[in-house]
Specification:
By secondary structure, the protein is α+β, with helices and mostly antiparallel strands. Helices cover 30% and strands 25% of the residues. It is built from 10 helices and 13 strands. The protein has a 6-stranded mixed beta sheet with strand order 6-13-10-7-9-8, with helices on both faces. The chain has a 3-stranded antiparallel beta sheet with strand order 3-12-11. Helix 2 crosses helix 5. The radius of gyration is 24 Å and the shape is globular. The termini are far apart.
């Protein structure tokens, strides 16, 4: 008979390896990998929402003066905040009493648990990756508020982070729509136009995430000049091209002819400090002969400067 403490051991093991599981999820996704490498991962302590402070206008008191001119010091509201809902993901790691009985040897039980853990890690990584490319409305708006929400096709309307883009123009991302399927001859100009639109002083796109067709056409376009990955980005494990100073990666979850031009300085991955790929307490359903735990995540993707992000629509 299997030891009754095996599920307790499973939970303890998962707690010890929760950071490893979180890292596995990060390394599975290009956006999270670049956010991690660029210091754009910041855990959140809690609260009703995840808030990102914004600077939405300049201080109107600033300006030139001469000698004894009276300097304006009236209060000026330059900060606001975008508020993002918490999103939760869970993957059960369960074993039935029958499975425990069949795999009664200690080594067999641990091998079976290991297989379930590996499956849970892969499942969580895939779920998070799908959510990061989504608009957050899936499963009753319980999915991650991903790139389709942060950098939408309808970029002049809609509420994101509790701020209405139709009212507040500073809260609009950029978009270039080619109005036809991109080709090797039309793609360079479209990319140049969007890159310029997303540039603000020293702030420029540093990561471009494209769908499969976008990436393939860009690779063909760049073939003659061989502008491929650098050693620094090759070690991340993703096939990478270079465009100006930005790394270009492919994501199968992104629509095939689209690409996101991102400034990762202003995009953050905000996991809850206590619930970042951690196991819940041991579970034993009252109406089932089973035991196990649940791998749990709580957090969301946030943006603090939306106008620096852009979408290329290439079909």
């Amino acid at each position: 008979m299997a030891s009754p403490n095996l599920t307790e051991t499973l939970t303890a093991t998962l707690r010890n390896y929760s950071q490893e599981i979180a890292d596995n999820v990060i390394n599975h996704n290009a956006l999270l990998t670049w956010l991690s490498k660029n210091g754009s991962m910041k855990s959140a302590d809690g609260g009703a929402t995840i808030d990102e402070q914004l600077q939405y206008q300049e201080n109107s008191n600033g300006g030139s003066f001469s000698g004894f001119d009276v300097l304006p010091t009236s209060a000026v509201e330059v900060f606001s905040a975008a508020s993002f809902d918490w999103k939760e993901y869970a993957v059960p790691i369960m074993m039935s009493g029958r499975e425990m009985g069949i795999n009664s040897g200690k080594s067999k039980i641990f091998d079976l648990w290991k297989g379930r853990i590996d499956n849970a890690k892969a499942t969580m990584a895939n779920l998070i990756s799908e959510g990061l490319a989504s608009d957050g409305t899936g499963n009753g708006s319980k999915d991650i508020t991903g790139l389709q929400a942060a950098v939408p096709e309808a970029n002049t309307t809609g509420t994101y982070g509790s701020i209405d883009s139709a009212t507040w123009t500073f809260w609009r991302s950029q978009k270039v729509d080619t109005a036809a399927t991109i080709t090797t001859s039309t793609l360079p100009q479209a990319m140049n136009d969007l890159y310029v639109a997303c540039t603000r002083g020293i702030f420029v796109p540093n990561l471009i995430i494209g769908g499969t067709s976008f990436y393939s056409i860009l690779e063909t376009t760049l073939m003659a000049i061989q502008r491929f990955t650098s050693e620094a980005t090759a070690k991340y494990g993703f096939p990478t091209l270079k465009y100006k100073g930005a790394d270009v990666v492919m994501d199968n979850n992104v629509s095939t002819h689209r690409a996101y031009f991102l400034n990762t300085r202003h995009i953050k991955w905000r996991p809850h400090k206590d619930y970042n790929m951690v196991p819940m307490d041991e579970r034993s359903p009252v109406n089932q002969n089973a035991k196990g735990t649940i791998l749990y995540f709580m957090g969301n993707l946030t943006t603090s400067v939306r106008r620096d992000q852009g979408l290329l629509v290439g079909d």
